[in-house]
Amino acid sequence: MDERKRDSMIAYLRHRMEDFGISPDALAATLAAEPAAGRYRSAHGESWSGEGVMPQWLKQALSAGQSIGHFELSSGAAAAPSPHARAAAGADWTNDPFAGSPLARSNSR
Q: Which of 61, 33, 39, 42 is nearest to 51 (CA)?
């Protein structure tokens, strides 16, 4: 990623954090927290270990054409939603480019 794109992404993330009242310290604490069990995670915080029956949310996403790799967590990237993310549960994440990624940690069920 070139430096201009990187700077643009950082500005976007800072703006979104301000919109939802997330401080850099809260984000760092959440990322440093003990990882939750699970190999796959949805944008809504639902997770699945990859063992046993596949959950309905993942079946629906795969049926809609999404790749299972889209939901796969990298080692150490899984973290429980922060209290700030839970407070923003009413947020509309449908147009968020990070939905389904480790950057999206909203539990907006």
A: 39
For the chain (length 109 residues), average pLDDT per consecutive 10? 87 92 87 70 85 90 88 60 46 62 53
CATH code given to domain 3-87: 4.10.430.10
Secondary element (H or E) of residue 48: strand 47-48
- Rounded to whole angstroms, the Cα distance separating 47 from 73 reads 10
- pTM of the prediction? 0.37
3-state helix vs strand vs coil in the chain, percent to 5: 40, 5, 55
For tokens 């480790």, what's the residue? Answer: 102
State the Cα–Cα distance between residues 54 and 90, nearest whole angstrom.
Answer: 27
